[in-house]
Specification:
The protein is α/β, with parallel strands linked by helices. It has one domain: Nucleotidyltransferase, domain 5. Strand 2 and strand 3 form a beta hairpin. Helix 2 crosses helix 3.
Length: 144
């Protein structure tokens, strides 16, 4: 048998480049998921039912202090208590870029006013210059 009669082996041709389109597709999907879930990430682990009111919505960056019906407290997503609230807020307000930042108190509608007032005093003591109370948009009053 001569060399010409041997079956030729099929050698794979080397890749000339890497296809990055699937990598970009997966990266974009992960980015969309991150952007969709990021507003949820700075809420505490307990439910807060906000009172209803007609308000203007703000798009600026802020610090959220949540007060739960059973007395739970949280600064952004970190749970705290009355003793550690001031220190946690001071830590958040320490950044010079956040000097004039808005601190929003998200109190459940069933929380006693005295407890909300105490949280407001501790927030002022921590050095917050701008404080707001969060409410749920009352769509009935807007239509009138």
């Amino acid at each position: 048998m001569s060399k010409n009669n041997r079956p030729q082996s099929e050698e794979p041709t080397p890749l000339s480049g890497v296809n990055i389109i699937p990598v970009i597709d997966v990266s974009l999907v992960l980015l969309i998921i991150l952007l969709a879930t990021s507003p949820i990430l700075n809420l505490p682990g307990f439910e807060v039912k906000l009172p209803k009111a007609v308000t203007a919505e703000s798009k600026e960056k802020n610090i959220s202090v949540s007060v739960g019906l059973k007395g739970q407290l949280a600064v952004n997503e970190a749970q705290v208590n009355m003793d550690t609230l001031t220190a946690a807020l001071q830590k958040e307000l320490r950044d010079p870029a956040k000097k004039n930042i808005l601190v929003i108190i998200r109190a459940d509608q069933g929380v006693q006013y005295g407890q909300v007032e105490q949280v407001m005093e501790l927030t002022k003591k921590a050095g917050a210059s701008r404080i707001a109370i969060a409410t749920q948009q009352d769509s009935d009053k807007i239509k009138q």
